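Section 3.1: Structural characterization of target chains.
Under the original work plan, the team committed to producing a structural model for every single-chain target entering the pipeline before any wet-lab resources were allocated. The record below documents one such target. The sequence was received from the expression subgroup and is listed exactly as submitted; it comprises 292 residues.
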Amino acid sequence: MLRRLVAFLAPTGKFLLQTEIHAYAFAISANLLLSFFPFLVLMLSICQNLLHWPRAADVIYLALQDFLPSDPGVLDFVRRNLRAAVSAHGRIAVFSAILLLATSNGVFEPLEVALNRVWGIGSNRSFWRNQGVSFGLILVCGALALVSILFTTMNRELLDALAGPLPTLTRWASLAAFKAAALPVSVAILFLVYWLLPNGSIPWRNALTAAVVIGIVMEAAKYLYILVWPLLDFRRVYGPFFISVTVIVWGVAASLILLAGAEISARLQRERAAPAAAGEAVSQKQIFKNLF
């Protein structure tokens, strides 16, 4: 069993050790850093200033501990600066929306090139076609994230009504509801990326299988990263830049996991297609013999 698993993952390991793949992962991670905080400001502005739903904003602040290391200093610093940004009302929301769209397109550019390489697609989309597909993915992914936040908020309000003044229970129940909603949303986003972003026809079953498996692996890897973060000691090494480094390192790890899922999916598809292609070649050879 273990030997089979090692033999199965060996090609993926060789794939991830290629310099080109690491270049893609760092490019994706750098753009992720540029879009992470504008995305949070935009979601908070929508919940707080547009929907006038402060409970939804509270859920986003609570969910930060699911994406950042559980260091009170880090969480307090990020929350404090987000609240200051959102307090600027409409101007900062419009700016964040524009910045989010621009930087998120940057995330999908190297990601498309990497996925095209994995699937053996020889040509990439033109710049403007890539921007169009990226814009559509951004809107859908943002809508899915917002639905997840609103679902968690409604659960929290229901718990408040049922449990009464039990803030600790409500807080943990809200976090559990967010985690329960986050996994399906992550799988849906991964499915769209695997299926629609490559410049070619990708079987939807392959994309869905890869999205489910990689979504679970990525969730487990996220908690592992948060667990080992204190041992990395970014604060001492990078000083005031340690939060940015934290996001970049996680972005690189998540990008490599995503590309590993695409490599496995593409390899399995090629292995399934090989016997059919061989059978077709044999049948064509037999037809040729019969004719002559």
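The mean pLDDT is 78.
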